[in-house]
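Postdoc handover notes: sequence design on the structure in folder B. Input C-alpha cells:
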C-alpha cells in the first residue's frame, strides 16, 4: 500500500455513553481514530425494497491496519456518516478494506 494512494481523510468513531443536562444516560459517538484512506469504490443503488423506493450509497475505503477496529464502529467522510458493513483484512495485519453503507439523511 503506497502512501501516495491514501489521499482521503476519514474519521472512525465508536459509540460511547454520556450524560445530558438532566443526568440521563445517552449514546454519543467519540472519535476513535482519524486516518488516511483510499477511496476504492462508490456505488449508488436505487431499488425498490419493503419500505418503498430506496437509494443506498455503498462506499469502500482501503486503509492501513488499525487495532481494535470492529463492525461496531462507524466512518465519517465528508460530513456523512457510514455504517461499517464488512471488514476485509489485507495480508497479515497490513490493512483493511472497509465496506460502508450510508446511514442517516
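Designed sequence:
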Amino acid at each position: 500500500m503506497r502512501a501516495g494512494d491514501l489521499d482521503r481523510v476519514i474519521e472512525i468513531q465508536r459509540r460511547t455513553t454520556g450524560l445530558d443536562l438532566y443526568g440521563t444516560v445517552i449514546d454519543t459517538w467519540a472519535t476513535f481514530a482519524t486516518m488516511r484512506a483510499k477511496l476504492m469504490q462508490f456505488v449508488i443503488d436505487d431499488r425498490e425494497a419493503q419500505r418503498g423506493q430506496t437509494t443506498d450509497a455503498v462506499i469502500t475505503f482501503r486503509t492501513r491496519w488499525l487495532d481494535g477496529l470492529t463492525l461496531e464502529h462507524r466512518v465519517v467522510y465528508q460530513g456523512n456518516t457510514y455504517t461499517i458493513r464488512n471488514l476485509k483484512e489485507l495480508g497479515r495485519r497490513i490493512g483493511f478494506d472497509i465496506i460502508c453503507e450510508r446511514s442517516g439523511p
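Context for whoever picks this up: The radius of gyration is 16 Å. Don't rerun without checking with the PI first.
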